[in-house]
Amino acid sequence: GCTDIICCILFMAVILGYIGIGILAWLYGDPRHVLYPRNSTGWFCGVGPNKDRPNLFYFDILKCASSINVIATALNGYQCPTMQICVEKCPSGFWAVSPLDYLPNKPPKEVFQQNSCVPSIDLAKTTMTVKQIVDKELCPFFYIPTTPALGRCFPDIQGLGRIPDYFSQVPGLPSSVNDTVKLIKNGTGDIINGFSVRDIGIRIFEDFASAWPWILLGLVIAMVVSLLFLLLLRFTAPVMIWLLIIALIGAGAYGIWHCYWEYDNYKQQSATISNVGFTTDFKVYLQVQETWLAILIILCVVEAIILLTLIFLRTRILIAIALIQESSKAIGHMMSSLMYPLVTFVLLLVCVAYWGATALYLATSGEPVYKVVALNSTSSDCQRINGTLTCDPQTFNSSYYPECPSASCIFINYNEEGLFQRNMFNLQIYNAVAFLWCVNFVIALGQCTLAGAFASYYWAYTKPNDIPMFPVCASFIRALRYHVGSLAFGALILTLIQIVRVILEYIDHKTRSAQNPCARFLLCCLKCCFWCLEKFIKFLNRNAYIMIAIYGKNFCVSAKNAFSLLMRNIIRVVVLDKVTDILLFFGKLVVVGGVGVLSFFFFSGRIRFPGDTFQSENLNYYWMPIITVVFGSYLIAHGFFSVYNMCVDTLFLCFLEDLERNDGSLQKPYYMSTNLMKILNKSNKQAK
After folding, report:
1. How crowded is residue 683: how many other Cβ atoms within 10 Å of its Cβ?
2. Where do the TM regions start and end (predicted)?
3. Within the chain, what is the greatest distance between any pair of CA atoms?
4. How far from chain centre, in Å, is Cα 569?
């Protein structure tokens, strides 16, 4: 039957609310505010009427570079205080209005270019003079070499070294060419330096374009090696485990012998700690006999503990190896389980995409606000209306303000006065909390699905004949049909703990400069405690989902039963956990290390395949394909081994339940493998 119905209803209500917020955000938001630059009249560059003009050009870039600007401060810095228009291409050279161009009889069309001026002015028909056009910022009075970055024309720092001398005579610019260059570099140099990696990015993209088939081949090799490693564990697990144990014992024995040799050597030289005294040079302590004697004693104690552990826990180690072998067999009968991480990945991708889109639409909701701004005037009349009056860029006319002829209608920010906008912060919090809950639910669904599939393998009396058809699909449908509430319950507990951790990190970040040592210590303890609590809840949830998949009970009962069962077999839990961790670490090392070394030799040109047309010398950075292959191999190995780890945990809980509930009689036969029964000296009674 359905479990934790109340939590299921709550989760569905939250999901419906989340969908509602997404719909409202989609109705009120406009991501173009972030994706595309906006000119001074509020039109977007690169879309709509400006489809062929994707770049934003600043008339007076010096105003953007100025560190102190009255208008920018008054308007909260939302806009660079100069006219901005959409252009097809960013200027690539130097140009400025000369003093002779300001003569009254000079036609504006001979001074300016139409595509560099605001669309509202027609240079061929206008009756305004060049000075009037410059004062109203209808056309730029100078421009310098720029480079496009994020749809904006930023100064080309390298091109500024060729700035002509006549720029020192241009009205409105600093009297010194060096001052002009310094002002631009100081104001926008950090921005340009941030985009100087564009050329490197282009080269890296070229490397990927030429090497992508071989990168894909490397990832396929990683997938094949991971699969083979898991399937062969049924044969190689005992050998690998005992070889690793023998290697550990051998390393300890060698360390003991080396320490004794060093101790005996320095003992003959009569080098003691009393001859050295106290010193900060720790290398000196390695030249006295007491140091090596102490290390010798420590290694002997550790070696003795390891040997005693192996003697007393040998049966539990054999059980762990048998369960690992059984897990390899289970995966061999359910190959589709190895593909399930792709389902989890897709669902997580949907959650992340929905959260990001909702956050973006919420952040860009609200109507744009335009205000009257005098860009080139400091008169009292202009300052009175500067940034205080709203306007409509479509119907604005500067003649409405004769006392301030340079007035313009400029976009400032987005309206925050509506009911939807006033609750923007609360909606973003809801978006973040619902996102965390959905992500944890998707992970829980994956764990419960795999646990149900592997449990159906263990409880099949005759393997593989009694294994149900399509066990992974059946387990997935069963989890969605009956256990959404239980999975949501466990995910909610984990989400609340993660929210507390986020709040603690936020408090620590905001109050770091004002904290005293006691406050820092208290926050550090709180963060450490909640980190440990999160790890424990993840462990508890994982085993609770396994019990839910086996018995179909609610979350609290399943968590209690799983925890009690594990505590009654705590030694077996520790041994199995460590043995599995060692094997999976070794497996990841084999996959990632092997494929990484192979890709290094290939992409660096040290080895070539027969008939290979790929030339490693043509790569700009051969290490980028290597990093991609190594990172991709790790993700692939992690995905495969996470399924394997879930299989081991599920079979282990089933094994413990089998031991406690069954006795090998005809009415209660054991479901464990013959190898496990042999290790435990148990057997099933045969019918006469």
Report:
1. 12
2. 7-28, 211-232, 239-257, 292-313, 338-363, 434-461, 482-504, 544-563, 583-602, 622-644
3. 121
4. 37
Give the three-state DSSP class for 89. coil
Tokens of 491: 């995910």
Q: Residue ranges of the chain with pLDDT lower than 70?
A: 64-81, 157-203, 269-285, 366, 374-381, 383-387, 393-395, 397-399, 402-403, 405-406, 411-421, 515, 606, 608-619, 686-688
CB under 8 Å, gap of 24 or more: what pairs does 244-250 form?
244/582, 244/586, 245/310, 248/306, 249/303, 249/306, 249/307
Angstrom distance (rounded) from CA 312 to CA 246:
16
- The whole-number pLDDT of residue 328 equals 85
Enumerate the H helices of 153-197 as residue ranges.
177-195
Q: What are the DSSP calls for 209-243, one per residue? A: HHHHHHHHHHHHHHHHHHHHHHHTHHHHHHHHHHH
Q: Which residue has the tokens 């990172």?
A: 631
Pairing of strands 146-149, 84-87: unpaired
Tell me the per-residue pLDDT of 587-603, one tens digit each, with 9 for 90 and over: 888 888 888 888 888 87
In sequence order, what are the beta bridge partners of 587? none
> 271 with 289: CB under 8 angstroms?
yes
Contacts of 257 (CB under 8 A, 6+ apart): none
**Alpha-carbon gap, residue 439 to 295, rounded angstroms:** 48
- The first and second tokens of residue 137, run together, are 């910022």
Is the bond preceding residue 464 a cis peptide, omega within 30 degrees?
yes
d(CA 386, CA 73): 12
Q: What is the pLDDT of residue 15?
A: 95
In whole angstroms, what is the distance from residue 508 CA to residue 488 CA? Answer: 30
Beta-bridged to residue 154, according to DSSP, are 147
pLDDT tens for each residue of 549-586: 999 999 999 999 999 999 998 888 888 888 888 888 88
Res 527: pLDDT: 92
Mind spelling out the 3-state secondary structure of 338-354? HHHHHHHHHHHHHHHHH
d(CA 52, CA 48): 9
- Long-range CB contacts (within 8 A, 24+) of 306-314: 306/248, 306/249, 306/252, 307/249, 310/245, 313/571, 313/575
Return d(Cα 312, Cα 450) in angstroms, integer: 33
CA-CA distance, 218 to 156, in Å (whole number)?
40
The side-by-side arrangement of strands in the sheet containing 146-149 is: 84-87, 55-58, 152-155, 146-149
In angstroms, rounded to a whole number, what is the distance separating the alpha carbons of residues 580 and 568? 20
pLDDT for the residue 418: 61
User: 2 by DSSP, 3-state: which?
Assistant: coil
Identify whether the C-beta of residue 640 lies closer than 8 Å to the C-beta of residue 231. no
8 A C-beta contact, residue 157 and residue 189: yes
Q: What distance in Å separates the CA atoms of residue 507 and residue 567, rounded to the nearest whole number?
A: 36
- State the Cα–Cα distance between residues 204 and 216, nearest whole angstrom: 16
Q: What is each CA distance from 219 to 585, 586, 596, 599, in whole angstroms?
A: 19, 19, 10, 10
Write out the H or E segment, with its range, that includes residue 95.
Answer: strand 95-96
Residue with tokens 């290094």: 600
Integer Cα distance of 154 and 159 in angstroms = 11
- Residue 430 one-letter amino acid: Y
* Cβ 467 vs Cβ 442: under 8 Å: no
Provide the pairing of β-strand 407-414 with 368-374: antiparallel
Specify the amino acid at residue 77: G
